[in-house]
Design brief:
Layout: H1 2-44, H2 51-76, H3 81-90, H4 92-98, H5 100-115, E1 123-126, E2 129-136, E3 140-144, E4 150-154, H6 155-159, E5 163-165, E6 171-180, H7 186-199, E7 210-216, E8 221-230, H8 234-251
Antiparallel strand pairs: 1-2, 1-5, 2-3, 3-4, 6-8, 7-8
Helix pairs in contact: 1-2, 7-8
């Protein structure tokens, strides 16, 4: 019995240090979250600083605080910071090989913040996936698709792929395609489209609306309309103009060809 008590007593310092380490970890994690959140709000409240930069700086500060917490925890177990640096220095090659992808994401994160090919709230296509940018941190870019599905893209893949930013410019061009019957009046159909475009206050006058015959299809004369508008109005104009042109064509006797099936029966 005494032997057991003696053995338990020998583990008492380790148990105490473990409890201390747990407390330091919990407190450090909470402090990291509170400080990074406060910095994010402070930076984002400044209109001269981009929200993307604020989120990125907050992410860096959070990880720096957690690194300090880790060093403090190791110190509780008698591992000095200098010893830790020496160990990490000796293990740099092994860590680099094991975390090659993670380190690549980290480096790419800095490049994304430095060159800013996209910002928070912009609609982009990154690594073959399109969505609205919700967050950019040290390692990942978070997107939300139009149907509100979360997409996580590692920064290494984002930086190493073609980035298409649909929100970068204030204006966009809406391209609309319409097909009319060969027997219809082409100028009349083009005039209908132009009148509708000019009547819409959201469509810009400069560059002015453009409508041309762009091809002669198998069963239709194909017209293309190009309208400039504010980027925020792009989808509304695209959908509403398509509906308005269809209704105006019907009202003015302009037909839109559609595929027909012809059944041929041979006698005998």
């Amino acid at each position: 019995m005494e032997t057991l008590l003696e053995q338990a007593g020998s583990y008492a310092p380790l148990i105490i240090n473990a409890v201390k380490a747990l407390v330091v970890l919990i407190v450090g994690w909470m402090v990291a979250g509170i400080v990074s959140g406060a910095i994010r709000r402070k930076v984002n409240a400044n209109p001269r600083i981009d929200d993307t930069l604020g989120n990125f700086v907050a992410s860096i500060i959070k990880w720096v605080i957690l690194l300090v917490v880790l060093i403090a925890i190791l110190g509780l177990f008698g591992i000095e910071a200098t010893s830790l640096v020496a160990v990490l220095g000796a293990a740099t090659l092994a860590i680099g090989m094991a975390l090659q992808g993670t380190l690549s994401d980290l480096a790419a994160g800095f490049m994304l913040i430095l060159f800013r090919p996209y910002k928070l709230g912009q609609y982009v296509e990154v690594a073959g996936t399109a969505g609205t940018v919700k967050d950019i941190n040290l390692f990942i870019t978070e997107l939300a698709t139009p149907d509100n599905v979360q997409i996580i893209v590692p920064n290494g893949q984002a930086w190493g792929s073609i980035i298409t930013n649909f929100s970068h410019h204030d204006t966009r061009r809406v391209d609309l395609a319409f097909g009319i019957d060969y027997g219809d009046d082409v100028d009349k159909a083009m005039g209908i489209i132009l009148d509708l475009a000019r009547a819409d206050a959201r469509v810009h006058d400069d560059p002015e609306p453009w409508v041309r015959v762009t091809s002669l299809g198998d069963s239709s004369v194909d017209l293309t309309a190009r309208l400039w508008c504010d980027a925020a109005d792009y989808w509304d104009i695209k959908f509403e103009m398509t509906k308005a042109v269809k209704e105006a064509f019907d009202k003015n006797g302009v037909s839109i060809p559609y595929p027909h099936s012809v059944e041929i029966q041979k006698a005998g």
